[in-house]
């Protein structure tokens, strides 16, 4: 009888421990979801954005030349970051796509070096305002004051689609696409399946107006936080984009949120 009671006690203890582990796992999962929670998009940015994917980037002592050649001294010792978060599309193979990037800054701009391995490059739409997201392109997301919030048809943040021909497109407050070629300077060179992109991205405040060129880009300084994400539109043989691969983890089923909601951007902390 004592043996039966002892066995029952052991079984009861095991169940209790297992239930406690489940509770802890559930609590940990909930905690992670809360860390990456994206606030509902509103035009009022009074709530502070979560600084997920906080990255410190060092200041360039020598400004890189934007020529699509990664031989500038500033790039040599900087860390590679992976461009590997699937936002749109089916699973892809490493033969189809691989991406990584580096970052630096100076008073004038943030600089990006991206290395993209893509077996097929597509630039099928000559008109920059026609389905610009369905060609192969780099997309740069920036939020000058790192406030987060909705920016789909406003300049609370920018989503620059940088095409292979150099045109830079985003929506304006009039809900129409505009060219922002003076905001982003780019160059790229391709050898085999590898394309090297270099980009100089000026950072404009949310007071920017399409019809008024008097608003200048901000002068960057150490200690500033900037909302940031990078993505690559990959299309091989289709009329529409096949994959959209980003730099930031986005929770939930709909991961294509960057062009609408700056809350999903990571945060760059500028350092000397």
Please sum up the structure shown:
12% of the residues lie in helices and 32% in strands.
Please give a structural write-up.
There is one protein chain. With 272 residues, the protein is mostly beta strands. It folds into two domains: 1-35; 49-271, Immunoglobulin-like. 12% of the residues lie in helices and 32% in strands. It contains one helix and 14 strands, in the order H-E-E-E-E-E-E-E-E-E-E-E-E-E-E. The strands form two sheets. Strands 1, 3, 6, 7, 8, 9, 12, 13 and 14 form a nine-stranded mixed beta sheet that branches. Strands 2-4-5-11-10 form a five-stranded antiparallel beta sheet, with no helix packed on it.
What is the CATH architecture annotation of the largest domain?
Sandwich
Main CATH class of the largest domain:
Mainly Beta
Mean pLDDT: 84
Strand percent estimate: 25-35%
- Using the CA coordinates, give the radius of gyration: 22 Å
Under CATH, the topology of the largest domain can be stated as Immunoglobulin-like
């Amino acid at each position: 009888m004592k043996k039966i009671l002892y066995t029952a006690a052991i079984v009861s203890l095991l169940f209790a421990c297992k239930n406690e582990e489940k509770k802890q796992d559930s609590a940990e999962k909930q905690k992670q979801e809360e860390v990456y929670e994206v606030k509902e998009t509103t035009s009022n940015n009074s709530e502070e954005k979560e600084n997920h994917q906080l990255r410190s980037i060092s200041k360039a002592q020598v400004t890189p030349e934007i020529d699509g050649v990664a031989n500038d001294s500033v790039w040599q010792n900087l860390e590679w970051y992976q461009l590997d978060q699937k936002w749109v599309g089916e699973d892809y193979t490493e033969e189809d796509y691989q991406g990584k990037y580096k970052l630096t800054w100076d008073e004038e701009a943030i600089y990006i070096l991206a290395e993209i391995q893509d077996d097929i490059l597509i630039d099928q739409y000559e008109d920059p305002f026609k389905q610009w997201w369905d060609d192969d392109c780099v997309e740069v997301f920036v939020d000058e004051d790192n406030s987060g919030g909705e920016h789909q048809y406003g300049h609370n943040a920018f989503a620059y689609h940088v095409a292979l021909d150099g045109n830079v497109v985003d929506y304006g407050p009039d809900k129409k696409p505009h060219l922002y070629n003076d905001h982003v300077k780019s160059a790229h060179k391709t050898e085999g399946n590898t394309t090297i992109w270099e980009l100089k991205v000026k950072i404009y405040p949310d007071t920017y107006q399409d019809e008024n060129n008097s608003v200048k880009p901000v002068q960057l300084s150490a200690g500033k936080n900037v909302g940031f994400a990078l993505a690559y539109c990959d299309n091989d043989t289709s009329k529409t984009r096949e994959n959209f691969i980003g730099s930031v983890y986005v929770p939930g089923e709909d991961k294509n949120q960057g062009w609408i909601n700056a809350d999903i951007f990571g945060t760059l902390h500028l350092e000397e």
